[in-house]
Amino acid sequence: MSKRFAIASIVVIFVLVLTACAPATPPPEEEFVFGVILVGPYNDHGWSEAHYTAAQYVVENLPNTRFIYLDKLNPADRPETTLEQAVDDMVAQGARLIFTTSDDFKEDTDRAARKYPDVVFVHISGDHVLTGQAPPNVDNYMGKMEYGKMIAGCAAALATETGTIGYVGPLINEETRRLASSVYLGARYCYEHFRGQDPDDLRMIVTWIGFWFNIPGVTLDPTEVSNDLINEGADVLISGIDTTEAIVVAGQRASRGERVFAIPYDYEGACAEAPEVCLGVPYFNWGPGYLERVQAVRDGTWQPRFTWAPPDWNDINNRDTSAVGFERGPALTAEWSAQLDQFIAGLADGSINLFVGPLNYQDGTPFLGPGEVATDEQIWYMQQLLEGMEGPSQ
C-alpha cells in the first residue's frame, strides 16, 4: 500500500467516524395552523379587529405559525353560512386550534367540537367549561372588561356637565348587563369622590340596539340612537357595541359647536375615529391569551379551563401581559387624567371595590347585601341592571 493511499484511507475513516458521532439534524418543525372565526368585519375598528390583531400577534411572536380566518359570520352578512361549515373548511386547511369569538357562537362551538374531538376550540366570552357543559376539547377565555368599563365610567363622570351619560348597548344578556353596570358604578364613584356631586343625581341612560352591531331592518340604528341620547341631554356617549357609530356621531355634533365627548369600545385604536372628542377607550388585548393557548396546543400541554383574565395592574397597557387596557384619548385633560390615575390605583390595590353592597337590582330586589362583596359568579351572572340606571334589563 502506498503512503499516499494509506493517508487518504485514514482521512476517510476519520470523516466517517465524525459523521457517525455528529448529532442528527432535527426535522423542520411542522407549521402550526390555527383559525379565527369573527362575528364582524376583521377591520371594524372594534371587537373583531381586536381579535384579528391578536392572531397577528401570535404569528409575530411564535415562529412557524399561521392563521386563517373567516369574518362577518352573522345573519346579515353570511345568512347561509353556519359556524360548522366555517369549521369544516378550517379543519380541511389544517387548523388544529380554532378561536370562536362571539357569545352567539356558544352552542355551535360545542357542536363543532364534538364533531372534531382532535381539534381544540377556544370560545371567547363563554362559560360552558365553568358550567360543565363543554366538550373536553373546548376552552373558555374572557378579559375582565368590567375594570375597563369602570375606568370609562369614571372618565365620563369627570367630563360631564349635564350629569347625563348615554350608553349605546348591544343586545341584552348577562355580559352586557354586567358591563353597563360597571360603567355606572365607576361613574357614580368618580362623580362623588372627584366632582363632589351627589351620585344619585347622575343619570345613565342605556339604549340597546338589539345586536352587537347594526343590522338594517333588524336592530335599532346606532347612529340614530347616539343622536337621540345627545338630544336627551347626554354629553358623554359610551359605546358597548362592536362598532364606532357613537364616537362618529359625537365628533359630528362637536364639529357643530356642541360640547360632547365619547368613549368607544373594544379596539385600542378606536379613538382615531374622532380624536378631538375621545376621552379614551377600554380595549381588549387578546394577544397574550391567544399566544398562551396556541403554544400550549402546539406543545401538547393544553388543558381545558375557564379563564376570566384581569388587567396587569403593574401596567394595564402592557401588550404582552394585560388582557384589558385603557388607552387615554386626546380629549382627556391633564386634571382628569391625574384623577383617573388615582382611580386606577385604587382598583389595582383593592382600596376601591365597587361591587360591594348594599346594591340593588333595577327593580329594587337585593343584588348585594350591606357589606357583601360580590363573587365572580355573582358578577358574571348579573340578572338585571343596577338600581338607578335607565333602560330595560330584559
Word description of this protein:
The chain is α/β, with parallel strands linked by helices and 394 residues long. It has 2 domains: 32-143 and 287-309, Response regulator (Rossmann fold); 145-283 and 325-380, Response regulator (Rossmann fold, 3-Layer(aba) Sandwich). The protein is built from 12 helices and 14 strands. The protein has helices at 3-21, 47-61, 83-92, 106-115, 128-131, 145-159, 174-193, 222-231, 245-255, 287-299, 334-349, 376-380, and strands at 32-37, 65-70, 95-100, 120-124, 138-143, 164-169, 203-208, 236-239, 261-263, 280-284, 306-309, 324-328, 359-360, 366-368. The strands form 4 sheets. Strands 2-1-3-4-5-11 form a 6-stranded parallel beta sheet, sandwiched between helices. Strands 7-6-8-9 form a 4-stranded parallel beta sheet, with helices on both faces. It has a two-stranded antiparallel ribbon with strand order 10-12. Helix 2 packs across helix 10 (287-299) and helix 6 packs antiparallel against helix 11.
